Amino acid sequence: MTRDRFERGLFRVLKPLVILFLFVITAFPFVYMVILSFRDIQELILDPGSIWPRSFTFNTYANVLTRQGFLTFMRNSAIVAVSSVAVTLLISIPGAYAVARLRFFGRRQVHFVFLAVYLFPAIVLAIPLFVLFTMLGLRGSLLGLILVYIAQTVPVTVYMLRNYFETVPQSVEEAAAIDGCTRLSTIWRVVLPLSKPALMATGLYAFMIAWNEFLFALLFLVEKRESWTVSLGLSQLAGSIEIPTTVLMAGSVVLTLPIVIVFFAGERLLTEGLTAGAEKG
């Protein structure tokens, strides 16, 4: 047996084993969290070492969604996340197109200025924003939180969309201009249909940030429980000694599951959008 054949055979055996090992260590915490969320707390206390429960119960989810108020929290998070995504894309699309296509002074540096926002830790911006929103009367409102998330996501979405817009052939836009399209109609009829993967990627990115973010939600909404987002509700469960572990796990599943569903629903477009424009950007 030659060395080449030995290495090929070894890799053929090791490849599925390594993939299986990585899948198990990655998926096991989430699977165990889901299993715990369906277990009865008395059974867990009596037999904490068992992985698979003897019986399943939905009382934990009923507790989380009704008694703990997670239905209201999920509604607030959905409003914040969807609004942030819509306004972010509405601002980022013309901004990214301008950086990609128009010629103006500082064009090459403007996207680096956008990304410079991420050089500052969120905690540095927290106190000035808290004081500003208190003066404007936006503390405790979902509108103020939406404005913060838009400011967080617009710079990086402009950068991502700019890279993709530069991969759209200019000849297609020139042909649309010859047919009588204005600049705005060219963006709407030509550029956006060709940029669906990038739009999906940036939209999912903004959605995940708005759904999972905790610091600013805690800072602005902690005094008004009816405006809490789902991340604040989960932190309340985690910080209470009266809440059973199974209920906490049910709350974690409620927080995580929408993101998982949205991610896998748009996984193909997300991958294309993140990688497209990498060579030309």
Protein described:
With 281 residues, the protein is mainly α. The chain is built from 14 helices and no strands. The chain has helices at 3-37, 41-46, 59-67, 70-101, 107-115, 122-136, 142-165, 170-178, 183-194, 196-212, 215-221, 230-238, 245-265, 267-275. Helix 4 runs parallel beside helix 7 (142-165), helix 6 packs parallel to helix 11 (215-221) and helix 10 packs antiparallel against helix 13.
What's the topology here?
Blueprint: H1 3-37, H2 41-46, H3 59-67, H4 70-101, H5 107-115, H6 122-136, H7 142-165, H8 170-178, H9 183-194, H10 196-212, H11 215-221, H12 230-238, H13 245-265, H14 267-275
Based on secondary structure, the structural category is mainly alpha
Largest sheet: none
SSE pattern, N- to C-terminal: HHHHHHHHHHHHHH
Helix content: over 70%
Spans of 5+ residues with little confidence (pLDDT < 50)?
273-281
Mean pLDDT level: 82
CA gyration radius, whole angstroms:
24 Å
- The number of strands is 0
- Estimate the global geometry from the Cα principal axes: globular
- Summed up, the helix count is 14
Q: N-to-C terminal Cα separation, in Å?
A: 47 Å
Percent strand: under 5%
